[in-house]
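Appendix B, Record 12. Input sequence as logged:
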Amino acid sequence: MSATGYDLVLREVTALTVDPARPLIEDAVIAIRDHRLAVVTSASEVPRDVTAARTLTLPGRVVTPGFVNVHTHAILTMCRGMAEDMGFAPAYTPGVPKGSDVRPDEARALARLGALEALLFGSTLINDTYVHADVTVSAMAEIGGRVVTCGRIHDVDFTKVADGRWEHDAKIGDETLGAALALAERWQGEADGRIGVQLSPHAPDTCSDSLLRRVADASRRHGLRVNTHLAQSRIEVERVRARSGRHPAELLDDTGLLDDRLIAAHCIFLDDADVARVGRAGVTVAHVPKGNATGGMIAATPKLRRAGARLALGTDNMHADMIEVMRWALAMARVQEGHVTDDWQPETALAMATREGAIAMGLGDDLGSLTVGKKADLVVVDFRRPHLTPCTSALGNLVHAAQGRDVEVVIVDGRVVVEGGRATLVDEDEIRREATVAARALWSRARSG
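Logged structural output:
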């Protein structure tokens, strides 16, 4: 290790690297140069006179890779504390503000709140979809994290879905797919590589068979990955069977979308044959354990993983605390297994929140572990708190006892974007005020309409 030339050095931390070669480093030194991890090792292996533009000495803290949130809808912060008790997603529920109701300025305000919350809780990358992505993408990226985004692609008329009417219009499909491809043309790789675009067909019930085929073709032609909802509700399964004579997983397979470049959220209503189909294809399941459990549902994650599916984590439209999501993912798997197993341990949950998500996003070479050469995205959690004391096992405490609000520092691309639990690049209070105004206006219109 050279004694000079580092941009930032962290000392006296415990590193949970998610690197199988060395998963735990106590009294670690982490050095960053040119946006990447240059050193990740123990203090005994480096000279004390290492110099850097800035050094953070952080005893009592635990450092992990940045969390990769593979499924979220930042604008749906507008439904916080409400939609959870209505039985299903806002798009399907009468009396709840819909994407079609959201104005561009409201989308920007609410998306910034969602992106801020995610960053403060340690998500250095969010995979976000909803509406007005052309307006929200730069606004979210300005907060400091990585944003992969897309407007939802569909050809159903969403203004009628909450009333139980699934009416498909080819013109809507042309518009939403065209907007997604234009978004990729404009934004892919912007903000020093922190912005990305995936194609996001909303769900098999809200996309016709022909539109799903067009998305699959566009994905191949433009080299864009795909994320969608799959088997998220009984309604979806019933609608697709009535329309196409197949289960939604079969439909995605037949239309060319079911493969190892697909991130499929939820995957709840799958029988054993469907689980096997998803597993064979190597699909990544975006597991949303707490959100699903709130609706009385659970994905068969042990079966899915045994079948060959990759499991990564998302927060969906609930709060963006990926640490709590790790805890729920572990607990819900153990409930299904009926006991504690060797293959469902805290390291499993942490990998799902980091390395597995990075691989699913096509970014496994750059993100997901504290490995020399990877991009410097990391999270510092303050363990100097009663609920994290004593710290016999840093990993165990993180998954079983920590919370997103314990995050003290977040670094993205080597830049400190959260310090002391506060965002460094934006005015948090202004973001909260603007989002509150937007949400109140949306709920007022929804209730009066």
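The chain is about 35% helix and 20% strand.
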